Amino acid sequence: MTKNDLRILLSSPRGFCAGVDRAIQIVEKSLKKFGAPVYVRHEIVHNKLVVEDLKEKGAIFVKELDEIPDSDQPVIFSAHGVPKSVPEAARFRNMEYIDATCPLVSKVHREAENLHKDNYHILLIGHDGHPEVVGTMGQLPKGSITLIEDIEEATSINLQEEKLAFITQTTLSVDDTSDIILKLKERFPHIHSPKKEDICYATTNRQKAVKDIAVQADLFLVLGSSNSSNSKRLVEVALKNGCAKAYLIQDVSAIDWSWFENVQTLGLSAGASAPESVVIEVIETCKEKFNVTIEEITAMEENVVFHVPGSLRDVV
After folding, report:
1. Got the DSSP string for 31-87?
2. Residues forming beta bridges with residue 166, ordered by sequence position
3. Distance (Å, rounded) from C-alpha 190 to C-alpha 175?
4. Separation of alpha carbons 162 and 190, rounded Å
5. d(CA 24, CA 26)
6. Which residues of the chain have pLDDT under 70?
7. In Å, how far are 26, 113, 129, 175, 181 from 152, measured between CA atoms?
8. Which stretches of 188-228 are DSSP H helices?
9. Active site (catalytic) residues
10. Count of other CB atoms within 10 angstroms of residue 167
11. CB of 22 closer than 8 Å to CB of 106
12. What angle do CA 63, 102, 107 make, to 5 degrees?
């Protein structure tokens, strides 16, 4: 049977960012240093395949610290960051903990603390309930931060505070967030802006790469988990920038091959917490079904590295 031709436009950069890579290394090095089990509060990153792999190596994931028995084994905080109450609770129990919070999320935490010290009321642009948002809001006393989820809330919110500032979740849609910021500045001309935008380099770069490809693709597939904010944003970016069909898939098993009807060009990317192995698996499966040609489209090069904590740097 004759195979149809399929051109794959491979988005670059894609997959693991420096913060995700650092967080995974922290769990793996902790397992080598302390032995199993090592406890992790919440998913270390939002990817089910990564979490399952670490479980097999001896990591135990819990929702809250009270699920952890008294032990000398450390607990690791996820890359998304935690409220201040969490390390306080760990210290109360004399638990050793290792903080895998992405340094770019920690930057937003410090930013919020400094603004609070300067008597600003803070508007946080982000998604309600996302662990990063919970962690950021938990850096300050209740009522110090107001969450803004969309342009409608930015338009309708009623605030009387004289000093206002905004910060953002690191994994948002660049374009949608820009619209929200413009609305806030229109309504509150003196609102204080971050010196450097809070949406992280990895989110920005992956969205730009998808945007560059979307108009050329008949179908776009993004590898990532359904609870991954940055992965979901990539699907939205593809749809908003000219691709008629775009789907978020965990791995190749989630593909409905009927999607490929009349598809000549496939756009392919992966969220910042998705391993490269799932991208390779999709490409290899496509090669079994189509005559595949691959073109890698590079929006920009990434060379960012975040080091693990000092206590783990001697672990090979």
Report:
1. HHHH-S-EEEES-SSS-HHHHHHHHHHTEEEESSGGGSPS-SS-EEE-TT---THHH
2. 123
3. 22
4. 9
5. 5
6. 1
7. 39, 27, 18, 15, 12
8. 201-214
9. 132
10. 24
11. no
12. 120
β pairing state of 4-12 and 290-298: parallel
Structure tokens at 41: 């509060």
- Angle (CA) 263-274-234 rounded to 5° is 55
CA dist 61 and 38 (Å) reads: 9
Amino acid at 217: A
> All domains of the chain, ordered by start, with CATH?
4-16+201-298 (3.40.1010.20), 18-102 (3.40.50.11270), 104-187 (3.40.1010.20)
Nearest to 289 by CA among 1, 49, 13: 1
Q: What angle do CA 231, 236, 241 make, to 5 degrees?
A: 125
pTM: 0.94
| CA terminus-to-terminus distance, the chain | 50
- Note the pLDDT of residue 161: 85
Tokens encoding 120: 């600003």
